[in-house]
Automatic annotation (TrEMBL):
Lineage: Bacteria, Bacillati, Actinomycetota, Actinomycetes, Kitasatosporales
Cofactor remark: Binds 1 [4Fe-4S] cluster per subunit. Following nitrosylation of the [4Fe-4S] cluster binds 1 [4Fe-8(NO)] cluster per subunit.
Similarity comment: Belongs to the WhiB family.
Main location: cytoplasm
PANTHER family named among the record's database cross-references: TRANSCRIPTIONAL REGULATOR WHIB (PTHR38839:SF4), TRANSCRIPTIONAL REGULATOR WHID-RELATED (PTHR38839)
Entry keywords, A to Z: 4Fe-4S, Cytoplasm, Disulfide bond, DNA-binding, Iron, Iron-sulfur, Metal-binding, Transcription, Transcription regulation
Residues engaged in binding [4Fe-4S] cluster: 19, 42, 45, 51
Intracellular or extracellular location(s): Cytoplasm
Cited InterPro entries: 4FE4S_WBL, Whib
Keyword Zinc-finger: no
Name of the protein described by the UniProt record: Transcriptional regulator WhiB
Boundaries of every 4Fe-4S Wbl-type domain copy: 18-75
The organism of origin for this protein: Streptomyces cathayae
Cofactor names: [4Fe-4S] cluster
Amino acid sequence: MHIDTIAPPELAWQQEALCAQTGGDFFFPEPGSSVREAKRICALCPIRATCLDYALTHDMRFGVWGGLSEKERLELRRASR
């Protein structure tokens, strides 16, 4: 029996994300690993801005979201205060 998973409407954008098609390994690397490949994929993603907005709104602390690393999102939050 196959059960389809349906994303809630507020997360439907994730189905269009390039990361959903490439797998999460690039976007949640081991500490100290490069995020270059994740950022390259994000740069090509049509919903990058939506992803970044989601990460900032929901205080996502791990991984690359919207093309920014954890450290870059933290710096962006601090700069916008």
